[in-house]
Amino acid sequence: MHRGPCSLHDYRLVGAVNWVASLQFRHSNSHFCGGTVIGDYWVLTAAHCMQSVRADQFQVVTGGTNLDGTGLQVRYPVNVTIANYDDNMKSNDLALIRTGTPLEPSTRITGAVVSPAEQRPAAGTECQVLGWGLTKQGGRTVRQLRWTTVTTQSNDRCQAEFRTNGYTISETMLCAGQPGRDACQGDSGGPLVCRADGTPLGDGGAPTSELRLAGAVSWGVGCATPGLPGVYADVAGMAAWLRAAIGEE
């Protein structure tokens, strides 16, 4: 649903971000969605990314920020577990990919799987969204990972902003935006990360050890459309499903 200009344009990444995954079609090695490594065998992405692709049709690429660089690792999925995703409402937009062989420990984000729902970032929290998606409508995906900062807002405020467009913001959604900053096509499923203590990321982000995975890029009306934030699947709001799918419950 993302259309129009957007701006994941900054290259200044602080610390290793090997935990961001590129999901690629096997036959072409072309990127189609993002994801986040949350365990030895587990990658979290958006459910809508998995709707029309089988586990044997794509690969998970991690270990670097440049998709043409060296040191990348490729893993092949053996199973995909999709949440109770509602394509009309865009709610519960998470999916778990299990790889056949383990991912390197260095590619796992610290604090990715949140347990208590109160770990959802408060409104006004500065976060970071990362991806290899389009930089403008009709453009191309990029090979170098990009990021930008966005600020979370309450679901009530988000609902008020989307009401005239006829969309419903559910409890499993998290909204975040900044004027001129947003995710776009190809960024879907990729991470929205915030500091665990809720303090601002600052110019250039924060070390991985200080980050918490807050959301996965889900949908929006345009990209960086004035007055409308991006919408993310709320990881904390779906923590019970996530733990059960991994087998922690």
From TrEMBL:
Signal peptide positions on this chain: none
Peptidase S1 domain segment(s): 19-247
Pfam families, A to Z: Trypsin (PF00089)
Key word Ligase present: no
Matches recorded under PROSITE patterns: TRYPSIN_DOM, TRYPSIN_HIS, TRYPSIN_SER
UniProt keyword terms in alphabetical order: Disulfide bond, Hydrolase, Protease, Serine protease
Assigned GO CC terms: extracellular space
An annotated Gene Ontology molecular function: serine-type endopeptidase activity
GO terms under biological process: proteolysis
Protein name: Trypsin eta
Organism taxonomic ancestry: Eukaryota, Metazoa, Ecdysozoa, Arthropoda, Crustacea
Gene label: etaTry
